[in-house]
Amino acid sequence: MPETLNVTWEALDELVARLAARTGRDHDLVLAITRGGLVPAGMLAYRLDLREILVAGAVFYRPEGGTHPAPVIGHFPEATLLAGQRVLVVDEVWETGETMTEVMGRVRAAGGTPVSAVIHYKPARSRV
C-alpha cells in the first residue's frame, strides 16, 4: 500500500485553488476518479463553476498491498455523456499514472477530450 500523507482542509483548499488557476475554465465537465478524486473534483468544479460532475470507479491498489496487473474500472459514464466534451479528469494523486492513463484512454475512446488534474504528482514513481 502506498504511503499516506495527511492534508488539512485548508491545505487542500489551497492546492485546489492552485490547480484551478493552472487548469483554467476551458472544460465542459469534470470526471472524478473514485475514491480519492471525489472531494478534490467537487472542490475544483465549484471553483471552475462547472456543474456537471461524472464518476469513474477505479481500483488499482489491492487492500492487502500491491496492485492489480492493470487498473480495474467498474462504473464508467456512457460514451454519449463524454462524446464531444472537454473532460477534466480529477484524482488526488498520480502515483504510477496507470489509473489516469486508463481513464483518459476511455474518455478518448468515447469521443471526449481529456485533461488530467491531480493534487499530488509523484514523478519518481510514475510508470507512464
Care to describe what's here?
With 128 residues, the protein is of the alpha/beta class. The protein is built from four helices and five strands, in the order H-E-H-E-E-H-E-H-E. It has a five-stranded mixed sheet, sandwiched between helices. Helix 1 packs across helix 2. The radius of gyration is 14 Å and the shape is globular. The mean pLDDT is 92.
Question: Which characteristics define this entry?
Answer:
128 residues; alpha/beta; 5 strands
| Estimated share of beta-strand residues | 25-35%
Name the poorly predicted regions: none
Which strand order do you get reading across the main beta sheet?
3-2-1-4-5
Structural class: alpha/beta
> If you average the pLDDT, what whole number results?
92
Radius of gyration: 14 Å
Q: What fraction, in percent, of the residue positions are helical? A: 25-40%
What is the 3D form? globular
Task: Characterize the main sheet.
Answer: 5 strands, mixed
Order of SSEs? HEHEEHEHE
- Distance from first to last alpha carbon: 19 Å
List the helices and strands and how they pair.
Elements: H1 9-23, E1 29-34, H2 38-48, E2 53-61, E3 67-73, H3 79-82, E4 86-94, H4 98-109, E5 113-121
Parallel strand pairs: 1-2, 1-4, 4-5
Antiparallel strand pairs: 2-3
Helix pairs in contact: 1-2
Summarize the structure.
With about 130 residues, the protein is an alpha/beta fold. About 35% of the residues lie in helices and about 30% in strands.
